[in-house]
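Two folds, back to back.
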Amino acid sequence: MSTKTYAAFNETDPLVPHTIERRHLHAKDVFIDIEYCGVCHSDIHTAKGDWGKPSYPVVPGHEIIGRVREVGPEVTKYKVGDLVGVGCMVESCQHCSPCDDGIEQYCENGFTGTYNSKNSKYGGVTYGGYAEHIVVEEDFVLTVPENIDAKAAAPLLCAGITTWSPLRHWNVKSGDKVGIIGLGGLGHMGVKFAKAMGAHVVMITTSEAKGEDAKKLGADEVLISKDVEQLKAHANSFDFLLNTIPVKHDVNPYLNLLKLDKTMCMVGAVEPLDPMHGGLLIMKRRNLAGSLIGGIKETQEMLDFCGEHNIVSDVEMIDIQNINEAYERMIKSDVKYRFVIDIKSLKNA
């Protein structure tokens, strides 16, 4: 089916209207009319070629919310009219150990990303959610609770699951002291989830203004990381640190905040870090770890939790015609805390 989209055709030019062909439904496929699509910083990195030259044209978007229009004859989980989501991946091998364990994001053969990924099963390259429609196998479609704001649920499919997965994996629980480092698309979801899990949440930031914002989101305390005395006062006191800083930085001051045997998990900086002092790990048997999105099972678990606790992202709605301006604002961190595209605006593209 012909589908209107917005696409990048090279590293420098703005995204522009474009038309693609979505595949015809196979037996287990779900055809989705997209209503909303979140805008992730990964969209910018991919469109601009920051992580290597992509397969142009790139149609970004992996925070997708929509309604089922049609299903293949062997689909059992979804019916026409269901509110559904599609996140960062649309296929995996389904037979390696991680896939068997429900953590397809670590597929040993590489998962198929929702956009700019070679589609080993159907051929070609995948195109994402800056589009009117998408076709996805039912095993990679997610049920979105009807009681939450659908447009504000879109970023849950990336920013949400990227923070939920490590919080769950490291068993954050009621009474734990949890630090969320950095307040942005990821950090604001980390605050909301950790608070709902019953943790004592500390926003760790360089900005007093962001600290005040974090309190409004539910943080119990704010630690200004430029203040040496504050760092000393919190040394050896955290049960878990979620580091959402998206760029190269010095992790040493944060490691010193952890208790014996506790972990700091990196989810933001997909690049080299400043040199780390091994003694900070060795002397307290601390752990420095990383985490990547989440599997389909845990993403559904997260969405169900959001339905129970009425958790969504803080979003600013835009029309698709304003996507290039939104990219410029995101680069300047000028959004609280995620842009979401109203896909109805594509009709006028």
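---
second:
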Amino acid sequence: MMRSIFFILLFIAICVPCQDLFAQSASKPRYILAIHGGAGTILKKNMTVEMEKEYTNTLKLALSKGYEALKAGKSSVEAIAQTITILEDSPLFNAGKGAVFTNDGKNELDASIMDGANLKAGAVAGVTTIKNPIKAAIAVMQHSEHVMMVGAGAAQFAKSQHLEIVDPSYFWTKARWDALQKAKARDKERAELDHNANHTAIPEVYKDEKFGTVGCVALDRQGNLAAGTSTGGMTNKKFGRVGDAPIIGAGTYANNQSVAVSCTGWGEFFIRSVAAYQVSARMLYAKQSVEEAARGVIDEIGKMGGDGGLIALDKDGKLIMPFNTEGMYRGSVAEDGTISVEIYK
């Protein structure tokens, strides 16, 4: 009798926790791809129903393209290329077609990619004629011995790789041009005030000028992680300024042992905190979960005075997308094909 009771209790001890584990697994889907389209002052009161629908539809299209690639057995790098290309071809986001203007009235684009399987990476910065900078970043990674190429040299390399080259006018959009004029008018007014006050102030950066970067993280069937990021930079930027997007470890990082990360926000703070790599380091060395690590990095950036967000997908398919702004265009697709898109908190 006692022996029977023992085995019954042993059965309960083993099976009940297993049931709880299965229940938890069922409630938390395994994600395979996620995107962001920039974080910032995204207020619902400033968004029309039509605009929100347009943003949502484009994000869903990008997610579906990435999912189709992964479902077909393509690599995480290939899935990211297809996903980010959709966002770069849309005028809605500050990347590719929708890139913002520099103070000189130019569009200077940056992008990067990292393969978590082998820690290889590629990036381009300050390019003005490459239609899809993410493809150029991938070409640098796969077909050169370098990690980053900039300006005219990067364009020359892209051309040698038979990537599409366009006239700079391709990137012109009225909304971005108007935003530049508004920023320059404000700077002129402020400069006059500083002159009258007999001092020179450091140019002020406004929240609506430093967001809009797009990014993607993916986990393929082989268990390989990858991360990619693309941006048009900061409205009214001067002196060849480059943000975190093309810098491996700052705006982009992927490692099969931990996580894939793509960042968006005030680039200077993400560079100074080595934000993307720090998520991985917290996981590997401090043994933090992907949620603890990602939220910790965004909290640290906030304490430094910066703002923005990131998307982080770990090797087990767990996803976190923290941000400290009014909103962040973001979306995800689970292993079963379920697509989710969000904008606000």
